[in-house]
Amino acid sequence: MFTLRSLEVFYWAACLRSFSRAAEKLNTTQPAISQRIGAMEEAIGEPLFNRATKPLVLTPVGRTLFGHAELVLRQVAEMERDLELNRRMHGTIRLGVSETIVQTWLSRFLKHSSRRFPSTDFDITVDVTPSMLNALESGEIDIALMLGPAVLEGFACVKLRDYRLQFYAVPGVLPGAQFTYENASSIPILTYPRNTYPFDHLRELLFQKTGRAPRIFTNSSISTIERLALQGIGIALVAEGTLGVTTGNSILKAVPSEIALPPLSFYAFYPLGFGSEVLEELAAIAQRVASDVLQNGEDAIEQYSLSL
After folding, report:
1. Which residue has the higher pLDDT, 179 or 296?
2. What is the reported pTM?
3. CATH assignment, 165-262
């Protein structure tokens, strides 16, 4: 009665609750989505969506069809996986990623992912976690490697690895040999943007300990934070291993500090349901690459080969 393409169009329109977002997801146009949905409704003789609401809501008939559509599409996806057809999948994965990962092991992840799915392209967005959470829930990206954990209904949350937060500065910038609560107000702290865990936690901690609001200069670019720290503007607070200190070419030095902060924990998030099979494999690749970097260092992973 319906083609697989029509069921796929209906499925994503229902999941994303928007014809325009379904069109973006499927690399087509909104009129094409509307035309297919309209043809399905004409064949059934009843509407599948309540178009008077925004976002879209399924009608009772639409909910019934959704269950059948998901079952059919999952079975097709399972067949393709068993036949290794997903390796030849042509398409684009919209990947959201935190800059900490960009600065450490993103290139390795892309290399191994491209081996596994040689016909798949990656559309990469580097952003902060709050923005990526919104993009995930609205269907603007397919998978995100970002800070967590977080409870998102209908999404998987796979632990990748932790990064210790470390203060860095050029010699002579810090008054004293240690960064303390007492001297924290004497120099700006260069760190991640507002509404991220390091900024919020650090500001609250210093305010509670000193009774004063600290001077915090925020930026979403780790390379910019490093450049400012190199120029003596302040002391950088970033994930360990993300600055040039790992290569030995930077004059930035790790600074001892009495200010202890919990580590950054990174997770892979992707939607559950039909279409998640490839995303699940990508999350597994990210997990194994991140783990290997943690255990064997940045250089050892060049010899690493995923047994997929």
Report:
1. 179
2. 0.74
3. 3.40.190.10
